[in-house]
Amino acid sequence: MSISESPAPVTKGSPSQPGDTSATRRRPALSPSRAGDFKQCPLLYRFRAVDRLPEAPSRAQVKGTVVHAALETLFGLPAAERVPRKAVDLILPSWERILAEAPDLIDLVPEDERDTFLDEARALVTAYYELEDPTRFEAESCEQRVETELADGVLLRGFVDRIDVAPTGEVRVVDYKTGRAPREMSESKALFQMKFYALVLLRTRGIVPAQLRLLYLASGTVLTYAPDEDELLRFERTLSAIWKAILAAGVTGDFRPKPSRLCDWCDHKSLCPSFGGTPPPYPGWPEGPAEDAPGFEEIVE
């Protein structure tokens, strides 16, 4: 990603601390992933944003975090040093740092599989150089935390993989994707995410980004998009409508399941009424400070 949603310092964050039972539970902010959760299945949104149920990260997500960490470190180097060999060399220390902060991740990458895992990550940063040359420009920021509150009180928050500003002032937002380029339905989801980023920059900087750029490392594909202000204002109304629906469900606890083919990949299927499960008692809508922690799936999507 990217603009997105535990305080630990890995890349955009590390696995959130689910099941928060503290006296003051944090009010959720709206991020691309949480908005996507509610659109996909309101009950999934509740499990993730309100109940904060635990979800184990996948091996692919951890690999994505390693690659994001290496690319962030790469742009902290002088331009002349950002060569492919250096990027490859950053994979091992990035993995070691992530593992030191989240030791349980070793279960996803046993010692006898470590070399294969790291080689896969090295192949992704190598593929990055087929899409752009980082020695030829400077990034204004990497893994930038951004937030804004809309006029109707909707709090938007996320982390941007990279923001570039041209000498002439044009802004480019760049998001790294460690998977393959999406099909049409997933492309729409990706553009939703990028419009979210563009809207936050419009509200925080007063400018419309000249380009939104998605780099799909596994397939060597680039998806670019040039938004306009009227489109972003319409999108703002869409986000406000989503938040209004979330708040209405939050008052009653009526987050209804919305079964689809994606249910087979849901960590909480056993708790879903659509499959004979029973959700935990609704804890009520959080009233504390706004949520400040990205979920792990949001870090690397």
From TrEMBL:
GO molecular function, one term: exonuclease activity
Region (Disordered): 1-35, 280-301
Positions of the PD-(D/E)XK endonuclease-like domain: 30-273
SUPFAM superfamilies: Restriction endonuclease-like
Feature: compositional bias, Polar residues: 13-22
Domain of life the protein comes from: Bacteria
Protein name: RecB family exonuclease
